[in-house]
Structures are given as structure tokens and as C-alpha cells.
């Protein structure tokens, strides 16, 4: 998350860190056909979801995307 990246920047070992050192849980992977109500429920716990079509990644949906769509 953004907070973890910012916290890592202040760490003296920042230059030696790898993505695996600061990554969080894998976000949910959803089909492009997933209903928005299901996505909303996932966004309570996750800041984003990976969208797939026939097993291939086709995009990412974030909380910001949902908010923009609602406005």
C-alpha cells in the first residue's frame, strides 16, 4: 500500500529492498463479468482488484474507479 511504501522510504535499507519485502496480500482476481455489487464488497478489504478475461489480465479496478463511476 502507499503507507507501506512511504514507511519503507524512511528506512535506511530502502535501496536494498525488493518488491516482495513490501508487498501485501494478493488482491482479488475477478472476471470482467463480475457484478459491481460483488466488487464493492471486495473493496471493503482490498484497495483494488485484478480483472481477467479468459485467464489473462485485462485491467485493474480501484476504489477510486468505483467512486468516479458513482459520481
Write down the overall geometry.
elongated
Secondary-structure element pattern, one letter each: HHEHEEH
Total number of helical segments? Answer: 4
CATH topology: CBS-domain
Distance between the termini: 25 Å
Tell me the strand order in the biggest sheet.
1-2-3
Question: How many structural domains in the coordinates?
Answer: 1
If you average the pLDDT, what whole number results? 86
| Helix-strand category | alpha+beta
Q: Tell me which CATH architecture applies here.
A: Roll
CATH superfamily annotation = CBS-domain
- Which ranges are low-confidence, i.e. pLDDT below 50, for 5 or more consecutive residues? none
Nearest-angstrom radius of gyration? 15 Å
Instruction: Describe the largest sheet.
Output: 3 strands, mixed
Strand runs, count: 3
Structural overview:
It is a single chain. With 71 residues, the protein is an alpha+beta fold. It has one domain: CBS-domain (Roll), CATH 3.10.580. The protein has 4 helices and 3 strands; from the N terminus they run ααβαββα. It has helices at residues 2-9, 19-22, 36-43, 63-70; strands at 29-31, 48-53, 56-62. It has a 3-stranded mixed β-sheet with strand order 1-2-3. β1 (29-31), α3 and β2 form a beta-alpha-beta unit.
Amino acid at each position: 500500500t502507499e503507507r507501506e511504501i512511504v514507511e519503507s522510504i524512511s528506512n535506511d535499507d530502502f535501496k536494498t529492498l525488493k518488491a516482495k519485502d513490501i508487498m501485501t496480500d494478493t488482491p482479488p482476481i475477478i472476471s470482467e463479468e463480475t457484478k459491481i455489487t460483488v466488487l464493492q464488497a471486495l473493496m471493503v478489504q482490498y484497495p483494488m482488484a485484478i480483472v481477467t478475461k479468459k485467464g489473462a489480465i485485462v485491467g485493474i479496478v480501484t476504489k477510486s474507479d468505483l467512486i468516479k463511476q458513482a459520481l
